[in-house]
Amino acid sequence: MHPMVTALLAPWELRWEVLIPLLVFGAIYAIGWTRLRRQSRRQQVASKWRLTMYYIGIGSLAVALMSPIDWLGSQLLTMHMIQHKILVMLAAPLIWLGNPYPVGIWGLPRPLRSAVTLALAGDTWFRRGLTAVSQPAIAWLIFTFIYLGWHDPSLYDLALRHEWVHNLEHLTFFLGAMLFWWPVVNGAPRLHKSLPYWVRILYVLAFVPPNAIAGFAIANASEVIYAYYNSVPRLYGMTALEDQMIGGAIMWVWSSEMMIDAAIIMLGVISYQEKRRKQKQQAATGALTIPHPQPQIKAAG
Amino acid sequence: MSRLLLLPEPWQRMLRLWLLSILAVCLLWPQSGLAHGGGAPQITDAPAGPYRLFAWSSPDPWRTGTAAHITVAVTLVDAAGQITPVSDATVTAVLSAEGQATPHLQFVATPNATAAGFYEADGELPTPGLWRVEILVSGAAGAGSGVFTTTVQPGSANNWFVWAGASIGVVLVVGFFAWRWRTVHRNSAQMQRA
Q1: From residue A176, how far is each of A93, A133, B25, B31 by CA, in Å?
Q2: CB-based contact, A16 to chain B, within 8 Å
Q3: How close does chain A come to B101, measured CA to CA in Å?
Q4: How far is B9 from chain A (nearest CA, A)?
């Protein structure tokens, strides 16, 4: 068996600082979902597909942070890139698709539910701050800055040398991604006017050029940019430069592809909405016109 | 979840509060107690008898009074240049303070469950200053060793992370009870007025 496959099949490291928040958030969502479903099974807020999305999102966080991918990230840039992509391109949008705020709020004990609702609905500093940073242009800039900033060689190496910097990197990646995907998924709480789909498409596609440039630069560098990877044994059949080339390509292709996929999905939604609108229009005009009597054709014989 | 445990209502509330307090502390706790890869490279691809040796130390720098962690990787390179991890070696780190009469310390490394050829050792250093760390490897192919030196910094009198975590916990609990107290008083005042 290839050493990479063996390493990926190795036991997970159950990190309590990851496991406990995931379990707590998972439990809160489960309680909220059950409460909402008890009220009505037909409502859209806590549907089965949203539940699935949420738990796949939570599960992908666990995969990124506790599976052998996390450990292999300290040995291979490729694995580190895969880990980052799972955090920002899978976990964040999937969690938003799970509709975490309206469902989760019902999983909280009443005093906390009131406190959270007041913090978000009232004129509080928390709401004002969140409204400011979640403006689509600001959210886009914050995420792009975090995403590209951590790929600076000195910061990247610092993260690999210091555990707490590494944890901070992952936390900021995830929170930045949550901010980025918020206006795309249009998740609750809605602090801004919903963006039209064509603006959302432009929003995600605007991320492709900076990401592609950074990924291309890493993939095509003639020497190892992230010096830390020169200090590890090459056990997985590729040199540090080959590893960097694949890692850069993953950054370039995967992230760009995710953005293009999101744009295609939104184009599909636009087309579906347009079709529905036309059908409704036709139904309305059909109802208004006076029906002409149709000639009856009788079958001979 | 608490319903599944069939707990009475007050216990359910306590359980939820406890879980949320843990969550808040976890989210605000930036340092992990576990090492999961990474660290400052100390020995890179150095010959050690028949083996090639790699070693990393974390946290960077080491401090007295806090856990010092060493990750060691042992590999064998055959004539064709093929690198294979050595997973059945005995790895020990012997630490001695330079110019001090401190007795030698010995950290026995255990194999990493995730990756073949990697070993992890933990310990604590009693005094600050320059320390010499000798990594001893013995296995079926033979024995070898590698050395690095590192400066151990004096430990902080206060563990700021613990203090910060504890303070956040206290603020959360006090805030929660203050909020409850205020709500109860406001409700009783409204009822009296009514």
Answers
A1: 12, 10, 20, 20
A2: yes
A3: 31
A4: 11
**Which residues sit opposite B124 in a β-bridge?**
B67
Compute the half-sphere exposure of residue A117: CA atoms within 13 Å on the CB side of its CA: 13
* Cross-chain Cβ contact B1/A166 below 8 Å: no
Q: For A18-61, what is each residue's pLDDT tens digit?
A: 999 999 999 999 999 988 888 877 777 888 889 999 999 999 99
Range of the domain at A114: 10-283
Q: Across the A/B interface, how many CB contacts are shorter than 8 Å?
A: 123
Structure tokens at B183: 């709500």
The domain total for chain A is 1
Closest-CA distance, B152 to chain A, in angstroms, reads 16
Q: Is B187 on the interface with A (CB under 8 A)?
A: no
Residue A290 is assigned to a structural domain of this protein = no
In angstroms, what CA-CA distances link B55 with A59, B39, B70, B155?
32, 9, 7, 23
Per-residue pLDDT tens digits for A59-91: 999 999 999 999 899 999 999 999 999 999 999
The 10s digit of each residue's pLDDT in B75-125 is 999 888 889 999 899 999 999 988 877 778 899 999 987 788 999 999 888
Question: Is any Cβ of chain B less than 8 angstroms from the Cβ of A58?
Answer: no
Coil, strand or helix at B189: helix
A100 within 8 A of A54, measured Cβ to Cβ: yes
Residues 56-95 of B with CB under 8 A from A: 56, 58-60, 73, 75, 83-85
Using a CB–CB cutoff of 8 Å, tell me whether B23 touches chain A. Answer: yes
Arithmetic mean of pLDDT over chain A: 89
